[in-house]
Amino acid sequence: MAIMSDTVDNHQVFAGARRIAALVAVVGFAIWGFTAMGAGQARTNAMQGYLLGYLYWVVLTLGSLSLLLLQHIISARWGLMIRRLLEAAAKMLPLMAILFIPIWLSRGALYPWANPEIVAHDAIIQLKVAYLNDTGFTMRTIAYFIIWIIIARRVTSLSRQHDASTDPAIVAKLNRAAAPSLVVYALTVTFASFDWGMSLEPHWFSTIYGVIFAAGGALAAMSLAIVVLSRLVHREPFASFVKPETVGDLGNLSLAITMFWTYVSLSQFLIVWAGHLPEETPWYFVRMHNGWEINGFALLGLQFGLTFLLLIIRDRKRNIQRLQRVALWILAMRFLDLLWLIVPAFSDKLRVQVSDVAALAGIGGVWFWFYLRALASAPLIPVALRRAELAAGGDHHG
């Protein structure tokens, strides 16, 4: 049973997709750059679009890291099937650190707490200045990326060692590294979501906000892995290993994450709305008027309702081509969710700007170009999966 694809062949397999990614990146950034060339509000709007596009891809990248750590902890077959896809996505963290620089340079235009004129006349922000300040924001962001990159490189390195050796000590190291790393990941992603997203509206706060970000990232990461797997399923080595049972596991996990995202999102809304505190309800009040309520109801009906109905169908979950259509739908809904979370901080009225879509495409094109290169640089199936198949007579799944 073939498993170790030659990396040269892998580069050839992904060559066409990388050219498309490069084209999307060039066109996206060209359009975004044109919108950013304006002065004043036009440039600010462009940077708001860049922040939105950046958050989409960095949350997806972090979600891939969380799933990578999770599959090392539980050691299920579905995890081995998509491990290389998750590792390649987690390797994009250095790229995302570089792409954060424009946001850092424009923080004064994006974040009210970074604008001295606003802080000077805002008593609430002044109370939070010990945390919301340039030095703290910068140092925390640097720390986040250092921690995430170290975690990703550690588990990826051990995974490669596991390919080359049957030493059980390597698996033990992976398990020991993954569990505490997942805890550290949860803490750092929570604070990163506070810094990059929630602090856009510094009068408001929610302890569930970071959980919503993390759940959305895991859902986006699983959806992307399903889409990529569907494109490779007819090629070796995946053609020999992808089974309906494993595809069903991916569908079940997608459904579980969707339900969890819905639970925490609705919990936040009910707690805030029932509390009826003047410092909390305005965040939702803006999102329930001037068109934003359409976005919110669309998330409830389409992100959760339609996705739930599609994923409870057993045959759809076990068919990779049908499942990937649902995954593409979820990826589109993830943008709608971020639009609802982020853009009302800048506009009371529902809006989708050219710069929003252009930045999303530009950053996504760059992300995919490097992602596909990383994916092609290693065997697409971990050797551990072949060992499990041979040990189980070719029918192991779990």
Keywords:
mainly alpha, 398 residues, disordered C terminus, disordered N terminus, globular, 0% strand
Give a written overview of the molecule:
- The structure is a single chain.
- The chain is mainly α and 398 residues long.
- The protein has one domain (7-391).
- Helices cover 77% and strands 0% of the residues.
- The chain contains 18 helices and no strands.
- α2 (41-74) packs across α16, α3 (77-90) crosses α17 and α14 packs antiparallel against α16.
- Mean pLDDT is 90; it is low at 1-6 and 394-398.
Summarize the structure.
The protein is mainly alpha-helical and 398 residues long. Helices cover 77% and strands 0% of the residues. It has one domain (7-391).
**Hey, roughly how much beta strand do the residues contain?**
under 5%
So what's the oligomer here? single chain
Shape: globular
The total of beta strands comes to 0
Radius of gyration: 21 Å
Order of helices and strands: HHHHHHHHHHHHHHHHHH
Distance between the termini: 20 Å
Number of domains: 1
SS content category: mainly alpha
Percent of residues in helical segments? over 70%
Give unreliable regions as ranges. 1-6, 394-398
Query: Quick check: average pLDDT?
Result: 90
What is the makeup of the main sheet? Answer: none
Total helices: the number is: 18
